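In this supplementary section we document a worked example of the pipeline. Step one takes a protein sequence of length 326 as its only input; no multiple sequence alignment statistics are reported here. Step two produces a three-dimensional model, which step three serialises into structure tokens for compact storage. The input and output of this example are shown verbatim.
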Amino acid sequence: MQQTTVTPVERAREMIDNVRQELGRRIVGQQRMIDGLLTGILAGGHVLLEGVPGLAKTLTVKSLAEVMDVSFRRIQFTPDLLPADLIGTMIFRQQTGEFVPRKGPVFSNIILADEINRAPAKVQSALLEAMEERQVTIGDTSYPLSDPFFVLATQNPIEQEGTYPLPEAQLDRFMLKLSVDYPSLEEEKQILRRVGNPAPVDLERTLFRNDVVRLRETIASITVDERIEDYIVRIVTSTREDPEHRKMGALKYIEFGASPRATIYLYRCARVRAVMEGRGYVIPEDVKAVAPDVLRHRLVLSYEADSEDFTSEDVIEMLLSAVPVP
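The serialised model returned by step three reads:
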């Protein structure tokens, strides 16, 4: 009897589906959020979650850490938080008469920065520096952070009182910004039944450190045709003022466009999406699917967009319809 050979892409998709199914035992719906979190982890980037309270953002992140063989720390950001509370500080040891480092909670694999816009700029900067440099300096010594190192930050879009909104330049450090919506009617009924009759749901670990390494190797081997590369570049550059793009109606709604960092992240995320769909190559639909999450927080909209009630999603949709598909 002939044995069927399982390709690396098929094996990778099966591993991702196992994580989805395990999270589905505790989380009702929110599949786009779950896929976005997995995309960020596998593409090697950080994710910003935006949504009103009560949409299971924190629960989903905690559950994701449970199914992975990684360390996890949750940090509640508050106005009185200090950088030392995040990265650590030097403490004096009386027995030896020396100052020794006490590492903060940032030295973990998955960091949940809950309500990041509640902390002042110096605390936000300390976290964003760790995200970019993958290291933390305490005293005179720099310490590398664990691998994988993944920051998931949440923020509440409806509350501005007593908050410190992230500047656009710092938002650019996040690979993805996920907009978390309300559940559907049927999903909310399931939530009601599940919470109304609470029973502990213990999740099994289904994704280990070596699995993450293998998944990233498989993703790196995904074929991206040169026409797809051109398509990615054209989408990102169409957000900028350029003689070639002046005829595009969307440009008048954009004050500042996306940087080349968006091009890199769009390329990486499209590869992850191809693996999630069980393909060894990227197609235009993969690029279109991840473009809103990659570009949403990188476009600074103009006065015209505000006056006409245009959102980033509206502008991105206009750009995707204007750029020719290969």
